[in-house]
Amino acid sequence: MIVAWHELPDTFTTATARARGVHPRDLYSARDSGEIVELSRGVFRRADAPPASYPDLLAVAYRAPRAIVCCVSAAAVYDLTDVIPPRVQIAVTTRDRPPRISYPAAEVFRFSVDTFELGLSTIEAAPDDPIRIYDPARTVVDLMRLRHRLGEPLAHGALRRYLRRPDAQPGLLLQLAITLDVRQPLRLALDVASAQ
Question: Which of 4, 97, 100, 106 has its CA 20 to 30 A from that of 165?
Fold first, then answer.
């Protein structure tokens, strides 16, 4: 059988390919010949597709579709930090089993079900390939919540960069901080940032 790769989506999984009649032998032959690129185990992208802006985030999103890109990974997307995390950071609910993704390496955070989708947004990791990610305000508040694990300088730096954005909403930060139980540390950090 001759596979018409252009009939598959730009990014697809082994299951999608098999559902469209592609034999695994043909799939791996196409990978080996360079017609498709394997982004992660069982996640592929057509070689003729437009380049992905965030290929690692895209691969992890296909491996864990209910997860949300968070923390330093989200901060890097929004230019709230110069830190490039060594692992894609994603959040899942406390009810979900954390996915095990070795490539690209992923770090999983477990967030409460009640506030899991608070601040949920999307970005295009590749043209017409949206992924779930927390918005900039939620990202700053999460960095503040996890400052003891991820670092105080990172959290404070992200806050300062956020406040310099034309779309910054300090009031929204405080609302999120109240909901996520980090009001006092965020309030103090806002006071310090506004005094500088």
Answer: 106
Token pair belonging to 82: 């110069």
Considering the domain architecture, whether residues 117 and 28 belong to the same structural domain is answered as no
pLDDT digits (tens, 9 = 90+) for 120-159: 999 999 999 999 999 999 999 999 999 999 999 999 999 9
Query: 173-192: b or e for each residue (b if 16 or more CB lie within 10 Å)?
Result: bbebbeebebbebbeebbee
Structural domain range at position 34: 5-46
* CA separation for the pair 168, 189 (Å, rounded): 15
Q: What is the CB neighbour count within 10 angstroms for residue 90?
A: 28
How would DSSP label each residue in 128-150? Answer: TEEEEEE-HHHHHHHHHHTHHHH
Q: How many independent structural domains does the chain possess?
A: 2
Same domain, 91 and 142: yes
As given in the structure block, the two tokens for residue 180 are 């996520």
| pTM as predicted | 0.91
